[in-house]
Every structure is written in C-alpha cells, then in structure tokens.
Amino acid sequence: MSKLAVFDFDSTLMDGETIDFFADELGFKEQVVAVTERAMRGELDFYTSLVERVALLKGLPYSKVTELCAKLPMMPGAAEVVAGLKERGYTVVCFSGGFRDATQPACKKLGIDADFANFLHVGDGFLTGAVGGEMMHSDAKGELITRLQSLLNVGREDTLVVGDGANDLSMFAQADTRIAFCAKPILKKAATHSVDVKDLRKILDIV
C-alpha cells in the first residue's frame, strides 16, 4: 500500500531560512528575517511577503546563490528520518515556498523522491529580484498534495505532513498525520503531533 510523507524545507528539513542566508550576504538579514517571521506566523500573506523579500535580493551574483545552497545546514536527523520513512514504505517529497536552487541539492543528498519549489529569476549572472513558480501562494501546498495523492493513489489516512509555519496549513488540511516541527502557534493548533526539539528522528517514533 502506498504512503506519502511531505516535508516543508526551510526550518524543517533545513536548519534555517534559505532567504536569510542570501540576505546576510547582502547585509540586510534583519529586514528579511522580520518579514519571514510575520509570514510564518500568518500575519502577512505569503505571496506578498515572498515577492517583497526576493525583490531585496536583486544584484546577488548567481554563483553566490549556488555556493550558499550547496552548504545549507540540514536539520539534525534529516537523513535518518528520510531513510526511516522509506523503509516504512513512504514516498518522501519536499514542498517549499522557497527556492529550487536550495531544495534540489539538499533533496538529492537526502534521497528525497521529488522536490517542488519556486524559481529565482537570473539575468546576466545576477538575481533580478523576481521569483516565479507553483509554490508562491499560501494554498499552493494544499493544492499540490491533493494532486500527488491522486497520482500516487494515496488517501489522507496514509499521508504524513511535517512543517513549521502558516504556509503549511493548506497541506495540513489534506493529511491525517500532521506534525508541527519546532513550529509557530498557528500551525501547532492544526497539528495532530508536535515535535519541539530540533531532531527529525522523533518523527519515526510517531509513525
């Protein structure tokens, strides 16, 4: 029988927010962190906050983006939880409201089956400050998970979701096992389980 596990990327599989690492490089991390925090608490529309934050990245060399993405710190237990879920028959997927430049190398390293994220626009070797993709809206993860469930023939009773912020709410609505990982209060309310320590292996105790 097919089973599906979907993980958020930033502050879930990866220890931090990709966009904060980029902003740090340009010297305005605090500005970006403040907007990210508000979006994750559900105080700001995710789409608006994403467009606003990416606009600040204009002019960052793309070579720097790939360099930073290659060394993003994974959350403790990330490799073990992916391996453990696969042993239990799960297809493991990553949904990110962030960027494919970050999810692709990390998911390859972790052995994740597929990753879905947004794309940073690049011109002449530099970020243009624009972003595009399927994961830009607050309900994007919910829409995509229902499509995957249909493709894989997996019901909500065999679906596990893990996330930390408000933009994970839409996928939480489509799964019976909902794990809030070091999460904001808005997501904890929608969860069936909470893990409050930075150790993804704790998820294997739940499944």
Give the topology, please.
Elements: E1 3-8, H1 18-26, H2 29-40, H3 46-55, H4 62-70, H5 78-87, E2 90-99, H6 100-110, E3 114-123, E4 126-132, H7 140-152, E5 159-163, H8 169-172, E6 177-181, H9 185-188, E7 193-195, H10 202-206
Parallel strand pairs: 1-2, 1-5, 2-3, 5-6, 6-7
Antiparallel strand pairs: 3-4
Helix pairs in contact: 1-2, 2-3, 4-6
Low-confidence stretches: none
Structurally, the number of domains stands at 1
Under the CATH scheme, which class?
Alpha Beta
- Please give the largest β-sheet: 7 strands, mixed
Q: In percent, how helical is the residue content?
A: 40-55%
Terminal CA distance reads: 15 Å
The CATH architecture is 3-Layer(aba) Sandwich
**CATH fold-level label:** Rossmann fold
